[in-house]
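DM between two lab members

TW: hey, do you still have the Glycolipid-binding domain-containing protein entry open?
JB: yeah, one sec
JB: this one, 204 aa:
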Amino acid sequence: MPRGRYSLHDPHDHTPLGEEHFQCAPGPSGWRYVSRTTTPSGDDAGSVDLALDELGRPIRLELHAASWQVRGAAIDGVTWVRTDPTGTNAREGNAPAHAFTGTSPAFLVATARLLRLAPGAPATRVRLLAFTDPVLAPRTVDQSWALVKSEAHTTDNGLLTVDEYQVNALDTGEQHAVHIAGDVVLAAPGVELEDLESPPSTFR
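TW: and the structure you got?
JB:
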């Protein structure tokens, strides 16, 4: 069960946004990721609880940020309920998207798991429902993902396979690289892996 810490920053001006303390593991029915986020000063900023089925589809998502809450799942596309800080107003939403995304590195692993790309294969287009900080506002985004290469690296714990993805934002044309080993993001825009207590898990 990997357990560790990511540092988060603005991918454009590198302003520190805080840290995400996480643990994740594959299970008999899929994969689960739980984390808590903190501000640069160390104050609590929210949490993430994401569970995928064996095909990589989100069967449960719960996000907390700035007293806002979202609960969602893959139902008729994706469906979610967003609750305001007072807890008095809850709005349900639905979108014809494949999965969710957001600032947490968990969503990068989840999207890679959903697409299951082969190295060198053509890029695959995917529509995601993004929850943007700090109020978890929903919006759909279209991306294309391609698995550029998979390389095995020798470590103290044996071979570690690192997948390099090229991700394109189809609305802006912006491109960036994402490096994932098993169920841990090694590097991505706005994300740095700072600490990892045990090796990444490998999916069957």
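TW: got it. The longest helix spans residues 106-115. The mean pLDDT is 94.
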